[in-house]
Specification:
11 strands, mainly beta, four-stranded antiparallel β-sheet
Length: 121
């Protein structure tokens, strides 16, 4: 019923910028917290940023001051603006959302398929 689709990944030079988008498709649901996680090969998946439906945000210390998470509730989309990118930001970035389907007792968690971000030195 619900699908998260990321876009906007790619290859950039260190110091550059990239904007990721994640749209939730489907119907008969509401979206609570949305966010971004990333995973490099051989590494654990880690939180990058989250945002609640009232725009309260949380960031990993490694991206504070460089990344900005935002959302458009009408479009059911979350964004990640990434500035001053560093090679250590290279990873697959995954969209995540807590979604409450109508007529169910509570929310459950969804993941997107991931989008590759590569930052060259």
């Amino acid at each position: 019923q619900v699908q998260l689709v990321e876009s906007g990944g790619g290859l950039v030079q260190a110091g550059g910028s990239l904007r990721l988008s994640c749209a939730a498709s489907g119907s008969m649901f509401s979206i609570n917290t949305m966010g971004w996680y990333r995973q490099a090969p051989g590494k654990q998946r880690e939180l990058v940023a989250t945002i609640t439906k009232v725009d309260s945000t949380n960031y990993a210390n490694s991206v504070k001051g460089r990344f900005t998470v935002s959302r458009d509730n009408a479009k059911r989309t979350v964004y990640l603006q990434m500035n001053s990118l560093k090679p250590e930001d290279t990873a697959v970035y995954y969209c995540n959302a807590d979604i409450h389907a109508y007529l169910t007792s509570g929310p459950r968690n969804y993941w997107g398929q991931g989008t590759q971000v590569t930052v060259s030195s």
